[in-house]
Amino acid sequence: MTTLFDVPAEDLNEALAERLADEDAVAAPDWARFVKTGTGRELPPEQEDFWQRRAASLLRKVAVDGPVGVGTLRGEYGDSSKGSTRYKVRPKRSTKGSGNIIRTALQQLEEAGYIETAQGEGRRVTGDGRSLLDETAGDVLEELDRPELERYA
Q1: What are 129-153's pLDDT values in tens digits?
Q2: pTM for the whole thing?
Q3: What gap in Å lies between CA 112 and CA 20, rounded to an integer?
Q4: Of the candidates 80, 63, 77, which has an alpha carbon nearest to the alpha carbon of residue 122?
Q5: Domains present along the chain, CATH in parentheses
Q6: Most buried by CB count within 10 Å: which residue of 19, 77, 106, 138?
């Protein structure tokens, strides 16, 4: 049986975002096109399907690392390596990602039944969420035609 660990994360997130968009499980709020993804950014994202991609990435991240809270996810989706150059006067700083984007996407995934709240621990994936991830990983593995992944087929 194929699991989410058997396929590349980028391919899984892309397929999962398409699946979430088809199911209408998550939808971008009206304010999403105006907000930045963190304090270290200057502009909002330009991708049309940004919200579905972020929700898919969050679902995978919670499945791999869970139970995990919003604060930890803010650090994961923040800007730690780049930062601004600050005109070469001071060193670069890491910044955290937007908590409102992460929290709202997690709440939508909770309403869809893919994530549940673990009291005092954060959020973790439900059985439905795990099966969605594994089914999508199986579909992705069938589509991939890479020699290094043939051993999983």
Answers
A1: 999 999 999 888 888 765 555 555 5
A2: 0.83
A3: 10
A4: 63
A5: 4-144 (1.10.10.10)
A6: 106
The pLDDT tens digits for 20-47 are 988 888 888 888 888 887 777 777 778 8
E strand residue ranges, 38-149 = 115-118, 122-125
Q: Are 104 and 29 in contact (CB under 8 A)?
A: yes
132: number of Cβ within 10 Å: 24
Place of tokens 């997130």: 13
Closest to 79 (Cα-Cα) out of 15, 117, 36? 36
- Axis-axis angle for helices 50-65, 127-143 (nearest 10): 110
